[in-house]
Design goal:
The complex is a heterodimer of chains A (about 100) and B (about 525). Chain A is built from three helices and four strands. By secondary structure, chain A is of the alpha+beta class. Chain A has a four-stranded mixed beta sheet with strand order 2-1-3-4, with helices on both faces. The two termini of chain A are about 15 Å apart. Chain B has about 525 residues and is of the alpha/beta class. Chain B is about 35% helix and about 25% strand. Chain B has 18 helices and 25 strands. In chain B, the strands form five sheets. Chain B has a nine-stranded mixed beta sheet with strand order 5-4-7-8-3-9-10-11-12, with helices on both faces. Chain B has a nine-stranded mixed beta sheet with strand order 17-16-18-19-15-20-21-22-23, sandwiched between helices. The radius of gyration of chain B is 30 Å and the shape is elongated. Classes of the chains: A alpha+beta (about 100), B alpha/beta (about 525).
Chain lengths: ~100, ~525
């Protein structure tokens, strides 16, 4: 399986940002098992990156690789929705897809 | 300190949009957000872009354009026609885009709570990047359709509006409406951004589009009320026509100028006043164009520049007709004394005609302006915009102290009044009527000076003839009643009177004297 490249855009250390980071880390740990690279970008520090990526709302998670590019807005609290958005199927209890 | 500032009232920022600053008595409220609401095609985006463009070109104030709808490339391309080189301004760091236009393809998935922190950060970044004083956001409706959660979007936009206010930036925000006359905007956004609301309309009236602009609300400051026509001109953008902003404060001149016809000058008590508005009314073929030509000749021989706007005839026709009266338009043009502009009224809207005429006047700087015929312009407009056109045009030429000569075609052969006259008569200084008079199976022409503001004038209705040398005014038509109403009757239909009418009063008097002798 190819490594998944994820970018999470946040604006400052707000509770919403913290939630999103925590939720995403849990999903990655549970579902991707190390097969991913995660970049967290604070827009307040790198506004040009947000401009380039045309980010409107935060938090926004983008999946750059593998294609197609996907974009998920929100604090990622709905695990099923997030997996769906990343084109992943959740592992079942036995650890199979 | 703050209280004191508020007491001083709301400061305004001159937009530089032609005409708008007059209507808004000074521009947009400074440091505040103004909502521009309008239906599709009402020129909202142009207003938003022009607000920034005029800032850059006129006030050296940089701007940020936030687009939720069209891509920055599309906007740059669309605005190119107004001579706004946005790409050049971008490289010179005078203009910055914040591109929030929707990406093609699937929209993003939304799960859990979010905010527009990224957008706000980008806007602030762009503002700091170019040192912007002005910002345009186009358009709010599009962001609502990108995100389905109206409540969040509304709350977040409120936050952005509050942040802009904090930064002291003057903002223009556009929003769609579904109807020309109805709710201010579709999503109820006006509640929070709208200290000020401007409505742009593009109303279809009698198969004609008419653009108007109305300042609905300017919190804490004054503005002109009601709808004002405006036009979108290539190379210029929005040009508003501030009607009630026009002041009735023109100077008045007592210097007389020649009408180009000695006898007519005598009838007018010595000629027209230099800055007067003259209306000539007559049926088709009564001699209006001839009088126009003589008016121009009168100016040209006096060394004055003349501008002739013809809506009825082509240039060649005019030249030929004028030479038929021994008036050399071609020579006058060669000497730079005359400029003839021929156009079908239908080529543009009346608002455009007005703006074009003003441009011509500014370019050519004439001392005399003739419009032949004004009533041809009635065809292309509604009565309301026609009235506004005449008001705006006469106010403009009076302000420039230009003698203006308008002709109006009566609806029937024997006279009666046209719409033109009904609307123009009170603002004209002089009215001259040309009328056909039927007498014993012959068509005669009568001329009278109906009105000559500020001067004595001849009250007679006089007969006139047209020949290869122009217009010749003869004696008074004494034995005919009701010429003006178009139903002439003969008071004393005696043969002597008829002869008198034909041969002129002096001859008649002579004959009478001879009889007595």
């Amino acid at each position: 399986m190819n490594k998944m490249l994820l970018k999470l855009f946040i604006t400052g250390q707000t509770p919403k940002s913290e939630h999103a980071i925590a939720n995403l880390r849990a999903i990655c740990a549970g579902e991707l098992r190390g097969q991913y690279e995660l970049v967290i970008i604070d827009i307040l520090e790198h506004p040009q990156l947000a401009e380039d990526e045309k980010i409107l709302a935060t938090p926004t998670l983008t999946k750059e690789l593998p294609l197609p590019i996907r974009r998920i807005i929100g604090d990622l609290s709905d695990r099923e929705q997030v997996l769906l958005g990343l084109d992943l199927q959740p592992y079942d209890v036995e650890g199979r897809r | 300190m703050n209280i004191k500032k508020e007491q001083q009232g709301v400061e305004k920022l001159e937009t530089g949009i032609p005409g708008f600053d007059l209507i808004s008595t000074g521009g947009l409220p400074k440091g505040r957000t103004t909502l521009i609401s309008g239906t599709a095609g009402s020129a909202k985006t142009i207003f938003a872009a022009q607000f920034l463009a005029e800032g850059i070109t006129q006030a050296d104030e940089n701007g940020v354009f936030v687009t939720f709808e069209e891509s920055p490339n599309d906007i740059s391309r669309n605005m190119w026609g107004f001579n706004w080189d946005i790409q050049d301004w971008e490289t010179k760091r005078k203009w910055a885009f914040v591109d929030a236009s929707p990406e093609p393809g699937d929209g993003p998935l939304i799960t859990g709570s979010y905010d527009f922190g990224a957008l706000l950060a980008r806007i602030e970044y762009a503002i700091n990047k170019v040192g912007a004083k002005r910002i345009s956001i186009d358009s709010l409706g599009a962001i609502f359709s990108q995100f389905n959660d109206d409540g969040t979007v509304r709350a977040e936009l409120f936050r952005i509006a509050a942040a802009l206010r904090e930064m002291g930036i003057t903002a223009v925000v556009t929003a769609e409406r579904t109807h020309e006359y109805g709710e201010i905007a579709r999503y109820g956004v006006e509640e929070f951004v709208a200290d000020n609301v401007i409505i742009m309309r593009n109303v279809l009236d009698q198969e004609k589009r008419r653009r108007t602009l109305e300042i609905l609300k300017y919190r804490g400051t004054s503005h002109q009320k009601g709808e004002y026509p405006f036009s979108v001109i290539p190379g210029k953008g929005i040009v508003a026509i501030p009607l009630s902003g026009i002041e009735l404060a023109q100077k008045s001149s007592s210097i007389r100028i020649s009408s180009g016809n000695e006898e007519l000058d005598r009838m007018c008590g010595g000629g027209f006043f230099r800055d007067s508005v003259i209306l000539v009314s007559g049926a088709t073929g009564a001699g209006k164009t001839l009088m126009t030509a003589e008016f121009i000749q009168g100016g040209a021989t006096n060394g004055e520049q003349c501008l002739l706007l013809a809506f009825d005839a082509s240039r060649d026709q005019l030249l030929r007709n004028a030479s038929g009266w021994s008036i050399d338009f071609k020579g006058m043009e060669k000497d730079g004394k005359l400029k003839i502009v021929c156009q079908y009224p239908e080529t543009m809207s009346l608002e455009d005609h007005l703006i074009r005429t003003k441009e011509l006047v500014d370019e050519f700087k004439p001392k005399r302006l003739a419009v032949d015929s004004l009533s041809a312009l009635e065809r292309v407009s509604t009565i309301k915009s026609f009235r506004e056109f005449i008001l705006a045009l006469t106010a403009y030429v009076k302000d420039k102290e230009i003698a203006s000569f308008f002709t109006s075609t009566t609806p029937t052969l024997m006279g009666g009044t046209s719409i033109t006259e009904a609307h123009i008569s009170t603002i004209t200084d002089s009215i001259i009527l040309l009328r056909y008079v039927e007498m014993y199976g012959e068509m005669h022409r009568g001329i009278t000076v109906l009105k000559m503001r500020g001067s004595m004038h001849d009250k007679d209705i006089r007969e006139f003839n047209i020949d290869g040398q122009g217009l010749h005014i003869g004696s008074a038509l004494r034995n005919v009643n009701g010429i003006l109403t178009g139903t002439p009757t003969f008071a004393v239909p005696a043969e002597v009177e008829r002869i008198g009418a034909l041969f002129g009063e002096e001859e008649l008097l002579q004959r009478k004297n001879e009889q007595i002798v």
